[in-house]
Amino acid sequence: MPDTFTPRTVTPLPQPLMEALQAILGPRGIITDPSDLEPHLSDWRGLYHGASPALLRPASTEELSAALKLLYEADIPVVPQGGNTSMVGGAMPDESGRQVILSLSRMNRIRDIDPIDMTMVAEAGVVLKTAQEAAAGAGCLFPLSLGAEGTATIGGVLSTNAGGNTTVRYGNARELMLGLEIVLPDGGVIHGLRRLRKDNTGYALRHLMVGAEGSLGIITAAVLRLFPRARAEAIALCAVESEEAALSLFRRFRDRDETAVRAFEYMSGTGMDFALKHIEGAVLPLSERGDHYVLVDLASSRADADLRGLMEAVLEEALEAGEVLDAALAESEAQRHAIWRLREEHPEAQKREGASVKNDVSVPVSKVPELIRRSSEALKALIPGSRPVPFGHMGDGNIHMNLEQPEGMDPAEFLARSHDIMDCVNAIVRELDGSFSAEHGIGRLKPDMLAEWRGGAELGAMLRIKAALDPKGLLNPGKVLPA
Prior knowledge:
This protein is α+β, with helices and mostly antiparallel strands. The chain folds into 5 domains: 15-103, Uridine Diphospho-n-acetylenolpyruvylglucosamine Reductase, domain 2 (2-Layer Sandwich); 110-228, Uridine Diphospho-n-acetylenolpyruvylglucosamine Reductase, domain 3; 232-346, Alpha-Beta Plaits (2-Layer Sandwich); 354-440, Alpha-Beta Plaits (2-Layer Sandwich); 446-483. The protein has helices at residues 15-25, 34-37, 61-73, 128-137, 154-159, 167-170, 205-209, 243-257, 269-278, 307-320, 333-344, 346-353, 368-382, 411-415, 418-431, 447-453, 457-469, and strands spanning 30-31, 55-56, 78-81, 100-103, 110-114, 119-123, 140-141, 177-183, 189-192, 218-225, 227-228, 232-240, 261-268, 292-300, 324-329, 356-357, 360-362, 387-393, 398-404. Strands 12, 13, 14, 15, 16, 17, 18 and 19 form an 8-stranded antiparallel sheet that branches. Helix 1 packs antiparallel against helix 3, helix 8 crosses helix 10 (307-320) and helix 9 crosses helix 12 (346-353). InterPro entries: FAD-bd_oxidored_4_C (IPR004113), FAD-bd_PCMH (IPR016166), FAD-bd_PCMH-like_sf (IPR036318), FAD-bd_PCMH_sub1 (IPR016167), FAD-bd_PCMH_sub2 (IPR016169), FAD-linked_Oxase-like_C (IPR016164), FAD-oxidored/transferase_4 (IPR051264), Oxid_FAD_bind_N (IPR006094).
């Protein structure tokens, strides 16, 4: 069950430490007013409500290094927070009132873009959408794309190894990173902003930091990989006969031209109904509603790529095979945006419909239909009247196997079954050789699962790495690793 403990009284930082931090960070670099802190004390889903004596906002790596050194010496725990879009409470302080929040929002410069090397050097506080726009301005593409890209930051998406919609083509955040600048818990700085594709010089410390959720060090800047921008695109929304038909359609596109598939997203009929009900302006561009949908997004850097012809040819084959029941191809940028909006607004639509439990899981791509079908049946049997809302990245095996409360059920009563619901899905995921966390991370919600899924020597190695880099356990305590 997610934490619902009432925030305790805040423990102020010792006055000498406050004065030293103010001298380092300046008047804009430290916030203690409760009303200004309030937006940083609750997560997006409303599962956690913490307390903190201060929010630190350094403007440079040097300021952060000096501040962390002081906090380390004073044994003050630090919780890094990017855009605060975590689904698992990874950026939340606890209720003790001792943990300081760290925001790198002032470190928001794009230091360099090189269209020859196809790299961008961005500070951790750069918003993902801003990075995308900066790349486009240089005639390039930064392909990481997700629903929270207008709020999520580069430091946050790297710290959580975010996936998103284009993983099937470009990989997760880890695959889009070449080098990192990192501040360690004691203030030491790793200067690793190298733009090299090949660099076999010892342990790849940068990869330890990606996905560590700020528990080993603070990412302050990154060298990001860029790609040629798309010069041809084609997007379609399809109603398909079943989960298996959705996978078959993906295989048809992949087998015809794997390099053209930029995204392949699955949505259930229930999730689509929620989006049409709750999202203003949402319209289904098909003749009638279905039980299963897919969004197909094709892109190429070749201006002469006939992606519309490819789309039409594959869809015609699938229609003849009975896999696709209806399809609509976008004819304009506005229509492309409208189709993608139906997919991107799924989390918000579920939130407006009522209480929901999130299950961010992954299985081998071939097992996705079985995951959706078996989990939906098991969840409806577990809580009669509940409404499974599976959706997500079928092309890379990551499905958000979410469950919406039964109509009329008390939300608190439903959420009290959170761990029962997650266990129900995870039992099936384990049988299918999957993972209980695909792209949302572990945060504060799932550390206890790690011992069961990654125990023995694997968890032992993780604990030793944590002890070596953060021996006092001051960086993002209570996250990722079990107590």
